[in-house]
Write a structure and sequence with these properties.
With about 100 residues, this protein is an all-alpha fold. Helices cover about 65% and strands about 0% of the residues.
């Protein structure tokens, strides 16, 4: 009987912790660093073009050496940088003007 009561008490404690989010088994609180303002990221188009060119040159060199897997990764990274650059260019072109000007 004592074991049943202990089990019932523990299950009640765990259920209350899950439902209320407090108690012995609760997760730590969220830090305020997560919600801190982040500096705005700018797009440096010439630098991105240089990274794309260097990545593709690196992929070609690796392919000539026979490291096809590494060449594929380098090419994929260059492609991802190119997509990011295109997205930056598109966002700059489609940026709406302020209403008061």
């Amino acid at each position: 009987m004592r074991r049943i009561l202990t089990t019932f008490t523990m299950s009640t404690l765990v259920a209350g912790t899950v439902l209320l989010g407090t108690g012995a088994f609760s997760a730590p609180s969220v830090s305020s660093e997560r919600f801190a303002p982040v500096a705005q990221k700018t797009c440096d188009i010439p630098q991105m073009r240089a990274e794309i060119r260097d990545g593709r040159n690196r992929a070609a060199a690796l392919e000539r050496l026979g490291a096809y897997g590494d060449a594929k990764k380098a090419r994929a990274q260059a492609d991802a940088t190119e997509r990011l650059m295109n997205a930056c260019i598109a966002s700059d072109e489609n940026l709406s003007k302020p209403r008061w000007k």
